[in-house]
Amino acid sequence: ILDDPDLKDIDPTVLKHCHAAAATCILEAGKQKADISAISTCLEDCKLDKERIEQFCTEYQKNKDALEVLLGSIGRSPLHITDVSWRLEYQIKNNQLHKTYQPSYLVTLNVENSDSGSHPDVSFSCTMEQLQDLVGKLKDAAKSLERATQM
């Protein structure tokens, strides 16, 4: 948003606040399953003009189903990692057929959510340095948790 040429004259802080307000409005409307009249009334109370309210409501209506699916996929508790698997991937050539010889790791986290059971696995690719950094951060987190439980 900050790179949009139409918005270059607006203070970035104001722009961030506007973005946060719009996102909050959209999420709350989706969470409350608000209809267009309720959204319109709320936006009128915020002193938006009719044209913008109509445009907002039209876009909201177009994306309402996708928003509800997204909100429904967010559980009340965080995902729990039940297993980890990995494999070494060795890239020999890139798209331009240049030799690269770059090893990377494909990591798959098997996760579940206590609210709704299992979820699709989370997979990502990383270099050895990135994997070492992740392992180091996980060890730090485990030590912090251990110290916190001993107090």
TrEMBL record:
Gene Ontology biological process: sodium ion transport
Domain COMM: 80-149
PROSITE patterns: COMM
CDD domains hit by this protein: Commd3 (cd04751)
Superkingdom of origin organism: Eukaryota
A Pfam match: COMM_HN
InterPro entries to which the protein is assigned, alphabetical: COMM, COMMD3
Family listed: Belongs to the COMM domain-containing protein 3 family.
Record's protein name: COMM domain-containing protein 3
